[in-house]
Design a protein that fits this description.
Length: 225
Amino acid sequence: MAGCSSRCRQGVLKLIQSLQRLVSGTLSKDNIDDELEMTMVSHRPEGLEQLEAQTNFTKQELQVLYRGFKNECPSGVVNEETFKHIYAQFFPHGDASTYAHYLFNAFDTRNNGSIKFEDFVMGLSTLLRGTVREKLEWTFHLYDINKDGLINKEEMTEIVRAIYDMMGKYTYPALKGDVPKQHVDAFFEKMDKNKDGVVTLEEFVLACQEDENMMRSIQLFENVM
């Protein structure tokens, strides 16, 4: 697919907002039931039981999410262009394109340039309702840009800089160009236990679990989901 329609982009945006309401509990059971009625008319998700077993969402939540995803994007996939458009709306004062690119790649576990409903839900399940270990593993894979199982300073700097760019000058009015690098240098000093210049998954998890401030900083992206 060359690009996602405006309707699809707006639909995915509404889907994310609906998910946030589901997770926060502000989407009432009556509303869920209303949406389920529409779900049963228009779509019968295949493999729903399997997704329920693989994620931390209930069958009702999955049905609501599936309806929103499939009705608004009939092709059943979201591409990177759509992802970037969504994040541009969430962060109008910054440039979200680079962060959206890396986040898209983290969701695109099949590495085929598109995100299916299953990919979307599996990732969100981990981010929103996974254990601390699961969230940290997902974050590690986000930072591991070249997917070699290690994080180097260049990779972490790319992600941190992308987050600063996305938040924009209104959030960080006095931000200097070398701040992301200083941020990363401090992280690496604590994470790279054997001082070999790269951080393994276990080093990453251990350092985050030992340092509450580092945990909050590393998981900043959760606030922009």
